[in-house]
Design goal:
alpha+beta, 5-stranded mixed β-barrel, 7 helices
Length: 207
């Protein structure tokens, strides 16, 4: 894994290992980033959450997730639709000063070796109970989904897809990203769902 990667700070956009994230690129700096990434052998882009707090303009969370560019297509007006496939989380060491219009960071991959392996399992996962709560949450939020596909998804695909797609606050998404295991991520996800059903905010849950 490379020591320096381009980073794409995007509030609320969560990428997890072995998951896919579609993105729409149109800003000139990110079109330049795409051109440069296509010239590399690893084709990695780091997705990272910017802090959303007074006085934190431009500050990035320390932990992000790198995705490999696995698909892209150009629209007639010069925009790009791309897909990132989650490779591994990383820890930002420092931001690299340079002449690129987009941001780059020196990163450390230590501690995230598990991300490069096969799918994780969640041995204590009570799927029927979880799905019942999820159904209430979707009804409460006015969301729809393909319940048959969700029911057939394996543990990791189900939990990670919901973590990425559910309408949680950016700081809650960061907590889901930083969860050390699939079980911890599922527990965090369940807490966020239950709190939303009680009319609370995820910010209060995470503090």
């Amino acid at each position: 894994m490379p020591d320096t990667i381009p980073v794409f700070p995007l509030p609320g956009a969560l990428l997890l290992p072995r998951s896919r994230l579609p993105l729409h690129l149109f800003e000139p700096r990110y079109l330049a980033m795409l051109d440069d990434v296509l010239k590399t052998s690893n084709r990695l882009i780091g997705m990272v959450q910017p802090y959303d707090a007074p006085g934190a303009a431009g500050k990035l969370h320390t932990i992000g997730c790198a995705g490999k560019l696995t698909a892209f297509s150009e629209t007639e007006d010069g925009r790009y639709m791309i897909t990132l496939s989650g490779a591994s989380r990383f820890r930002i060491v420092e931001e690299v000063e340079g002449f690129t219009p987009y941001r780059r960071c020196t990163v450390n991959w230590n501690g995230f070796e598990r991300d490069l392996g096969g799918p994780e399992k969640d041995p204590s996962f009570n799927r029927p109970e979880f799905m019942a709560g999820l159904n209430r949450f979707f009804e409460d939020q006015g969301l729809s989904t393909d319940w048959d596909s969700l029911g057939e998804a394996d543990d990791e695909l189900l939990i990670n897809s919901l973590s990425m797609l559910c309408p949680f606050e950016p700081e809650d998404k960061q907590a889901l990203l930083e969860a050390p295991s699939l079980t911890t991520r599922r527990e965090t996800l369940t807490t966020l769902i239950e709190f939303a059903l009680r009319g609370g905010s995820g910010e209060e849950v995470m503090q």
